Hints:
There is one protein chain. The chain has helices at about 5-15, 60-65, 80-95, 120-130, 150-155, 165-170, 175, 195-200, 205-215, 235-240, 255-265, and strands at about 40, 75, 110-115, 140-145, 180, 185-190, 220-225, 245-250, 270-275, 285-290. Helix 3 packs across helix 4. It has one domain: 3-Layer(aba) Sandwich (Rossmann fold), CATH 3.40.50.300. Helices cover about 35% and strands about 15% of the residues. Strands 5-6-4-7-3-8-9-10 form an eight-stranded mixed sheet, with helices on both faces. Strands 1-2 form a two-stranded antiparallel sheet. The radius of gyration is 18 Å and the shape is globular. The two termini are about 30 Å apart. It is built from eleven helices and ten strands. By secondary structure, it is an alpha/beta fold.
Amino acid sequence: MSIFEQALLKRNTTRTESVQDGSHPMPDDAASETNEVSTLPTGARRGPPSGVTSERPGHPIREILREARMLVPDAFDAKLADEYRRIKRPLLDNAFGKGAELMEHGNLIQVTSSLSGEGKTYTALNLAVSIALEQEKTVLLVDCDVIKQDLSCLLGLADRPGLLEVLDSGLDLSEVLVATDVPDLVVLPAGTRHAYVSEVLSSNRMAALTREMASRYPDRIILFDSPPLLATPMTQIVAGLVGQVTMVVEADTTPQDKVQDALGLIGENKAIGLVLNKAGHATKRYSSTYYYGDYYAP
């Protein structure tokens, strides 16, 4: 069991009374761990991003990140930090038009995979922290995996109203955003599960919400932690609303035909990034390839 799984299992164990069926699915596996740590130079950071109002300190997630051997703003794995710098750079360039034509809804980025267990939640959370460290950028991390809710559960937000309440109950987005103790990182929990989540995510309200998030805050990246593409039609719906898709592929495990099938579900004219995860100690744990429009066979 990976460090990431252990961290989520620990979070689930301490709050089983609030989960109706008494259990929760296991999360996506994390990458292999390392003990190499570096210290990030500290500097003045801004408060919570626009749209978040809170008189209390941000929701604590640093210790959770540390336990799961993920990126932590003040001390983290140097190699892992560099790997995510490489992953985030083309995403930011596409989102804000640096070195390329500005992409429509380029600041809306879906993180997904072909199959379960490839590491998409681990990747989404690390990527969110890495982007939050950028100067003059804020990050909204949305738990769009409204069935499993691994992200919300790991961060202790599974009992909070969230995305589903905004779409289904008319709550304002500002009422459910959760500022964290990582400056410039805000989380939108999944919300309360029910039987019609696919219909809710395919509604006009979801389309309007993503347009609002894309245009309201020009310095914000919105990351959607979504279910695997081959597991549910919900992911394909979200893929149609975003400008970029980052697909996590588990090294030496995910069949090539499954990757091709998943890519075939993504609409044209999307910037698609492939992130090779869990490549082992002998090679880089992550590598990334980005392309635009028609995809190639990996």
